[in-house]
Structures are given as structure tokens and as C-alpha cells.
């Protein structure tokens, strides 16, 4: 069902992982998708990963949409302003903004107190994970509210409950949920909405590399960590976000934090292998109590 034909989406931070999964699934529903990031065929970002935005754009087009790769550092207001001006000039509309910029893993020091964690790295984490979202929304929302039905999806990790063992990481992910709530309040008068979405244990490219497996053979990693059986591919949350974007009643979820499993149940979706993992529930019922 090509329910997003004619719709324009911006996936900020679409080089890999959830961002790429979301962009591809939006393309599968026929959307035009601007995919942004700092890693391109011309050079890598400081994360030094091989994935590029050009690869993501090609995958969007192959899925049936129109992928447009634009190198953007979302911590630079000028670059973001230029991106939004281009979207406006080329299409005159923006129907979906996915704020997925992150790039903070390399700055997180797990298990350290606020006085032990390197301050500079911690503040960089906040800048990467919160400031970039604010900058992007500041420039993109005036275009999004030109039409009713626009949606903002703030990508986070968890629902903001349990402390995440790094004060800076925890602040970023909880702040993103609050950003969704605040933006939803401000978008309501314009007939638009904002939600937060969290995947479960994501089989990102980096995670697959860590376990030494590929997506096709990911189950081999369960021998190393049995909880990995409840992991999910990036396309799982991608399908959920795409279904949400295609739902004319998506505003009923405004201000909420939704998991990939919540979206799968709501829209009757499965992961690529036909499963329907619910890692947040698994964590609460199995891992947390031991």
C-alpha cells in the first residue's frame, strides 16, 4: 500500500541503524525522503563507520520511494536552515520530521557518576543528542505546519523510566521524550502532532559488528547472550514509524512515548523474520527481576 505517495519526509540522522530503517520503510510506502547525516561517499564522520547517506538514499529509492541524500551537520544552524530551504523550494511541503540525530555513543562513559564522567564528553553528548533536535525543529517546523496533519517523531531510547547508568545519556533520552511532549503542545493549534518512539534492542550495524554476525545470521549471537533473542532489526521500528506517518489519526498518540512493539501491535506489523519482539516488556519481566 503506497499510502505515502506525494508526502515528503525528512529523516535527520539516517546514515545507519534506526534512521536508515525508518527511511527505507517510508520509501516502501512511496514517500520522498530526505536523508541526512555526516558520513558520505566523500568521507566519514568522527564515528568512523562505513555506512553513508548515499547508501540510505539508494535503499529508499529501491524500496519504491525517492531518496535524496544531503550532507548536514545538525549541530550547525546554518546547514539545517539551508536544508529546510531546499526542501521548501523543491517541494513546498514537509509532512514528516524524524529527529534521529545521535552520534553520542563514543562520548558515553557507562557506570560513572556525574563527578567521574568526563565533563567535556558529557556536555558533547548533550549537544549531540538534544541541541541538534532543537536546531532541526526550529528550522523545519515552520515548513511542516503549512499543512495540517504534519508529524514529528522524536527518536529516543526507553520510555524515561529506569536510570540508564550514565547521567548524560539518561538526560539526553529523557529530554527527547519531553521534547516530543512540548512540541506536541505547540503543534496542536496547527493540526499537527509530535510523538517519541523507542526501538528495543536494536540490531544496528555497530551491534551486529560487536557480535560478529550479519542480519541474515543474527541468531548465532544468541549463544553469546541469550537475551539477544529478543532483539529487533532497524526495519521493525521503521515499519512502525512508516505506519504511524500513514495514519490520518496519528494525532491521537500526540505527546506519548511509543515502543516499536506498541506500533507493531497497533498496526499489525512484524519484523523482517515474521517475529514481533517486545524488548521493553522482556526487560521488565525477565531481565530486570533476574
TrEMBL record:
User: Which organism is this entry from?
Assistant: Paractinoplanes atraurantiacus
What NCBIfam families does this protein map onto? PRK08303.1 (NF006159)
The cross-references to InterPro entries, in alphabetical order and at most eight, read: NAD(P)-bd_dom_sf (IPR036291), SDR_fam (IPR002347)
N-terminal signal peptide = none
Can you say what this protein is called?
NAD(P)-dependent dehydrogenase, short-chain alcohol dehydrogenase family
Amino acid at each position: 500500500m503506497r499510502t505515502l505517495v506525494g508526502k515528503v519526509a525528512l529523516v535527520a540522522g539516517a546514515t545507519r541503524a534506526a534512521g536508515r530503517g525508518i527511511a527505507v520503510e517510508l520509501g516502501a510506502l512511496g514517500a520522498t525522503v530526505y536523508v541526512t547525516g555526516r558520513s558520505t561517499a566523500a568521507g566519514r564522520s568522527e564515528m568512523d563507520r562505513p555506512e553513508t547517506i548515499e547508501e540510505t538514499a539508494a535503499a529508499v529509492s529501491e524500496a519504491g520511494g525517492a531518496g535524496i541524500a544531503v550532507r548536514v551537520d545538525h549541530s550547525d544552524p546554518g546547514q539545517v536552515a539551508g536544508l529546510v530551504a531546499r526542501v521548501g523550494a523543491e517541494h513546498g511541503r514537509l509532512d514528516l520530521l524524524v529527529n534521529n540525530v545521535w552520534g553520542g555513543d563514543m562520548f558515553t562513559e557507562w557506570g560513572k557518576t556525574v563527578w567521574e564522567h568526563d565533563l567535556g564528553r558529557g556536555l558533547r553528548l548533550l549537544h549531540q543528542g538534544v541541541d541538534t533536535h532543537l536546531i532541526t525543529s526550529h528550522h523545519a517546523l515552520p515548513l511542516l505546519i503549512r499543512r495540517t496533519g504534519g508529524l514529528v517523531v522524536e527518536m529516543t531510547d526507553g520510555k524515561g523510566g529506569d536510570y540508564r547508568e550514565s547521567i548524560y545519556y539518561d538526560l539526553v533520552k529523557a529530554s527527547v521524550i519531553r521534547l516530543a511532549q512540548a512540541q506536541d503542545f505547540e503543534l496542536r493549534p496547527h493540526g499537527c502532532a509530535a510523538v517519541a518512539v523507542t526501538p528495543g534492542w536494536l540490531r544496528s550495524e555497530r551491534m551486529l559488528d560487536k557480535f560478529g554476525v550479519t542480519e541474515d545470521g543474527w541468531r548465532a549471537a544468541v549463544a553469546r547472550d541469550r537475551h539477544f533473542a529478543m532483539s529487533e532489526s532497524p526495519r521493525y521500528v521503521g515499519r512502525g514509524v512508516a505506519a504511524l506517518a500513514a495514519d490520518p489519526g496519528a494525532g491521537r498518540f500526540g505527546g506519548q512515548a511509543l515502543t516499536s512493539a506498541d506500533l507493531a501491535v497497533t498496526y499489525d506489523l512484524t519484523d523482517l523474520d515474521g517475529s514481533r519482539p517486545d524488548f521493553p516488556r522482556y526487560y521488565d519481566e525477565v531481565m530486570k527481576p533476574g
